[in-house]
Amino acid sequence: MTTILTGGVGKAEVADAVQRLALTGVEAVVSNDMDAATRLRAGRADYFLGTCQTGAGASLGVLVGLMGSAVCHTFGRSVPSEGEIHALLDQGKKVFGFAVDQIDAITPTLAGAIAARS
């Protein structure tokens, strides 16, 4: 089972969006930054999707500090292509941030790419 933790101002909406996709072997769990960092570092979760107003600050601030920038990526207000998402996953990125108003545009593609790796 692949566990995606969600955090930030749109954490419930992101979790709902992932659950609506009904991806086999993927669960979404509403979390917070500190819990997510602890669970990711301990191997009790696989990915984190964080949201804030810009997607570039509070969505990942704590996670970048605790996990390191090598595993974190922010899309900010942009909507990535499926190819860009796969490239980031290939690089080992596990923590993603994006703007709360981009949830419906980013979550399905990102969660689908994660599920394809499960």
SSE layout:
Blueprint (H helix, E strand, L loop, with lengths): L1 E7 L2 H11 L4 E5 L2 H10 L4 E6 L8 H7 L4 E5 L5 H9 L4 E5 L3 H14 L2
Parallel strand pairs: 1-2, 1-3, 3-5, 4-5
Textual characterization of the structure:
The chain has 118 residues and is α/β, with parallel strands linked by helices. It has one domain (2-116): Ribose 5-phosphate Isomerase B, Chain: A, CATH 3.40.1400. Helix content is 43%, strand content 24%. The chain has five helices and five strands, in the order βαβαβαβαβα. The protein has helices at 11-21, 33-42, 61-67, 82-90, 103-116, and strands at 2-8, 26-30, 47-52, 72-76, 95-99. A five-stranded parallel β-sheet has the order 2-1-3-5-4, sandwiched between helices. β1, α1 (11-21) and β2 form a beta-alpha-beta unit. α1 packs across α5 (103-116), α2 runs parallel beside α3 (61-67) and α4 (82-90) crosses α5 (103-116). The longest helix is centred in the C-terminal third of the chain and has 14 residues, at 103-116. The protein is globular, with a radius of gyration of 12 Å.
